[in-house]
Amino acid sequence: MTTPVAVIVDAVAYAQAVEDAVKASAAYYAGGTSVLDDDAYDRLVRGIAAWEAAHPDQVLPESPTGKVAGGAVEGDVPHTVPMLSLDNVFSAEEFTAWTASLARRTGHEVERFSVEPKLDGLAIAARYHQGRLTRLITRGDGTAGEDVSHAIGTVEGLPGELAEPLTLEVRGEVLMTTAQFEHANEVRTAHGGQPFANPRNAAAGTLRAKERAYTVPMTFFGYGLLPVPGTDADTAAGLDDLAHSELMARAAGLGVNTTASTAVPGITAASVEQVLARVQEIAALRAELPFGIDGIVVKADLAADQRAAGSGSRAPRWAIAYKLPAVEKITRLLEVEWNVGRTGIIAPRGVLEPVEIDGSTITYATLHNPADITRRDLRLGDHVMVHRAGDVIPRIEAPVAHLRTGEEQPIVFPESCPNCGSGIDTSEQRWRCEQGRNCHLVAALSYAAGRDQLDIEGLGHTRVVQLVEGGLVTDLAGLFALTREQLLGLERMGETSTDNLLAAIETAKGRPLSRVLCALGVRGTGRSMSRRIARYFATMDAIRAADAETIQRVEGIGTEKAPSIVAELAELAPLIDRLVAAGVNMTEPGATPPPAPGEEGAEAAEGGAAGGPLAGMTVVVTGAMTGALEQLSRNQMNELIERAGGRSSSSVSKKTTLVVAGEGAGSKRAKAETLGIRLAAPEEFAELIADFLS
Q: Is 210 annotated in the active site?
């Protein structure tokens, strides 16, 4: 990765850069807002440092380099021990150079490092007296911080009382998880406030707020434990001599939250190579974490090595932050497009001033629905915080309200369907064309005929357009009523292609229920959920007879989704009846309808063959398959897993039993290795389920 450095050409530009950095730092640390995103700030400060290295006689006293929190934050509560920042590296080469300097300071090659995620929150010191939490203090300028003890009781993971009556100080990060951030913005906007731009801003603003009419939860992760000078030494004896990894284990034993319970727990490493491997593992899991990280913290683990390396005025010399590419940037919202999906859902999409995030140029971002736009008070021309991590679709978090100029314009919502001009059903948060699927009949039929649905070979997009424009098909059931004469009347349809298409349509009648259900495009379901529903209920009649409470028995269907699915199936009832009349299969091979509530085995688990080789296993497939599995689509792979008795899943968790890792497997393989989950190559997996491949 290219080291991010802003180019400063002369003393005037240097002075302006220092002023900009100090203002940005003050806004960032004091109020959780800034005119610069993290990446832009890092580039600016490194540019300042480069200029100062070349012009040491022109360094301004207010420069942010060499100062904690950029030198812009003050506090009135002295820290017991300076609360320093961390220096940064941005590449493996820079990290290796840092380890060399660490070796020079300690007099030997360091053979034990601690490696843990760098949490994107607000650093605080939590003081405990005889086991009770008495004070919370921000980092401030490193020597003194702000008293935020009013927040005691609102921070999860920071117990009001330790498991032992010790007098000590816990240091760590206060942040908001993704769920807490969404909740905070809902509450904040409901009380008339502007939404927070990102979780870090939300945590910083919330931690300092003293007189709000509401409270929202935050989460604490500890990264340090130290005795309080001037107190009884016996209350926290020996902390100074413990390795960092031992301190974290001690903190967890006292009831303090640490990363040990997450998918990216802190570990120890014995070499530079092991550290860099762990950096890649954490980076691969970043997009799936329920909280933000912006890097990995690497420390000399042993207390003796830390003492030998010492600390500077701004940062310890025994620790470094290996920064990851930014996943959030500030850019401008130029326009909002309104797109209509195959089921008639009208989805807004933000058009952005192009911005590079994590190596990709982003020009579009998700806007969930009109209610979300209103709640976030988004306007055309707004500076907005855009988030993208890994392969996650970019999304607009919120406007950066303090950058508004007054020239921003309201976003105009459509009054009629942008696709067909019909009315819009606005009764739910996601707006929908009143024509529903018929608004995009071509898209709906093309989807239904696709490989992972009914798999009707020869019925591509162009042919569907002909059928719809010719009035031969008005819904999915119409495909099964097509005659040879009708098809021969279409342009470029000869006898052979007509007979082949009719044969493919006839074959499609026998597809399993899961494929038919998926082809119907029920909102709230997809390929995986359609398989789960079909395998649980076994017949379409059983599905249609189920109420919302019964539908919720299918894994992954909650209280919000269940009523929507029931309503969709009721809406589709006439179409389903026509499909049945046309001879389309409505059963799932190998599945047994569940007993009625109260009957023996009413809670029977869904799945495939009870005695199959994958019975009781949850399987995730990732990467490119080879050998006997090469020609199978991902949907066919998932069907195969379920026929063999297993349960397919798209994400790796502690519940995963097996990960089939093909060529190019990335974050899912890394997460499986981290969690100690069994891995299998495609060839090994094919041999395991050979009896079900035919």
A: no
